[in-house]
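Hi there. Long-time user, first ticket. I'm pasting a complex I've been working with (about 617 residues overall). I'd like to know whether the download I got is complete or cut off, because the file seemed smaller than I expected. Thanks.
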Amino acid sequence: MMNKNTLTIAGRQFRSYFNGPIAYIVVSLVLIILGFLFWETFFLFGRATVREMFRYFSLINYFALPALTMGLIAEEKRTGTIELLITMPVTDAQVIVGKYLGVLGLYAIMVVLTLPYPISVGNLGNLDWGPVFSGYLGLLLQGAALLGIGLMMSSFTDNQLIAFFGALAVSIFFFLVDKFLPFMPSGLAGFAEQISFDFHVESMRRGVIALRDVLFFASIAAGCLLVAFRSLESRRWS
Amino acid sequence: MSDVMIEARDLTKKYGPVTALRDVSFEVRKGEVVGFLGPNGAGKTTTMKILTCFIAPTEGQARVNGADIFDDPMKVRESIGYLPESTPLYTEMLVLEYLQFIAKMRGFTGEEARKRIKKAVEQTSLEDVIAKEIRALSKGYRQRVGLAQALVHEPDVLILDEPMSGLDPNQAAEIRELIKQIGEERTVILSTHDLAEVQVTCSRVLIIANGRLVADDTPDELRERAGKASYQVTVLAKEGAYRDSEQSKAVRDALGKIGGVASVRQREAEGKDELLFTVLPKSAEDIRAEIFQSAVDGGFVLLGLEKKAEALDKVFRDLTTGDTEELSAREQKKAEARARKKKRDAAKKADAKAEAKKAEPKKTDADADDGDDAEKEEA
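Hi, the file is complete. Here it is re-exported in full:
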């Protein structure tokens, strides 16, 4: 699944973001909104922590990441370049994984661009770096799962807009699913909490790295990639 | 290994209830330039997509350069350079960037990649636009980028889906020249609905209609299927001359005596004082000089002498319209002629014989009506 072609596709995908406006728009918008939300309350609380930044960032992710993934496959389907790509000596799985790594790379850049926050907070006060580290891991994992969802939705259609709103709907479902726990029957509530993205990210924001949280996001991402792979492959038989 | 580069066996493709391709079989040998000809939606693109392993056939199998499309799609793709319909490209990339990406995907790096890209760029004369964004290029240049992309790995087989569509005549001529050049050492399959294109570029023609292969011939053979050339001879009529007059008989005899003539038929002339004959030759040899000589010897005045070659598009229409079953053009003609004869027999008994003679169909639409009538009458 992983070979040179996968990386070549990933590299092209990554670079293509910087040939168009989407990446610039999304990344700068995320950073501006994040900066506004974070610094507005930071001095109010007067505590040397970046937990709030992780909270805002993971919230923005639900809305911003579908914009990065919407074109991944849908646009290639629309323009027909998918045909050229797939008729190269690559497997469908390599195409999917390559595309995924490409957008994951862009997301990683976006996350790295927030490093000034903990660094400056660390200069202002005594910052505990443990939760910062686990917080970043949580952010990456949550993003990885959301990007998987976006890629999957993009593989279903040749229309970027449909891919965007489809991914947005699924993402928001995973965000809202534990927000109505009091109204749910108790059995369902337990389940709803377990599949909530926030629930799994929250413990990592607090500094706890649990295997089940890591596995949760990893399996969501892997499951989505598998579905995307099947969806891409289905063209052969339909 | 044999020199059969592409071998398709009973390819059938169904999209849900629609059958896009039925039992298509063919072989393409090394060094052939084969044209896929057919109306839109006939199954040309489907066949190409199957050969490039983009889609799988519902039934049947194919091998490209010895590799099976099911068992070894990677090897199949390695042997193929493919230009899909309407030339999809990553338009936001620079031409060079794009070709570098393709070279990398094809497994070439460093100096090797540079050399191959340079060669492909030279072959397709892209030097001037190499640093431009693809989206800024004209249709002709894009087409060439698409070709360059297909050539980078110097594939044994080149599959081009409508490489000429949307090009102006100059651009088309350039691409045609390029394809011919490439076809000298490689195997090329190209699809088109342009007949002139096939005649110029291809050494073999596969005609596909409604998902079936209806013809597999060289352009020359195809033309022969439609019958050889014929000659229209117009002679000045002497006063009072009519179809069955002495004069027309004399001319018919004179023409019939020419060595290369198979038959002479008299037809209704347009002008009052003209006699019109259709002369069918025995071979493809030009007999216009002989016809002229016989006019001089026979002392009749030649008003017109025209050689009419059956155009390839007539063959194309005959093969691709109407019933999908392969029905030879000639049989169709015969049936129509018979139908006309019957019809006219009923209407005009006196003139029946003469009328039947000229019942040679000219236009397909007009014939279609007659065909319907024939069915009724025969039933």
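A couple of notes from our side: Chain B has three domains: 4-223, 228-308, 328-378. The radius of gyration of chain B is 27 Å.
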